[in-house]
Amino acid sequence: MKHLTLVLLGAVAAFVVIGPAQAASSFRVIQWNISKACQIYDFGWGGRPIPPNYRVLTPGLPTFAAAGERQSRTPRPLLDLAGFKL
Hints:
By secondary structure, the protein is an alpha+beta fold. The protein has helices at residues 2-18, 64-73; strands at residues 27-32, 38-42, 54-56. Strands 2-1-3 form a 3-stranded antiparallel β-sheet.
């Protein structure tokens, strides 16, 4: 019984030490330079979009839903089928 308690205690301690830390989300709306398409991207995990030809349109937002609402209100240039601005 004593060994089982020590094993469980060790497992809990390992989980606490090794468990992933909760990263703060920082959702932002970005716009790709070539296609002018907008996308929601989470900058909270430390990575950046690849390729780096984008522009950030909003400040950091706490939730994906907030970023989605902001994306729907963001004015974007109209494009015709050939890709020229109207």
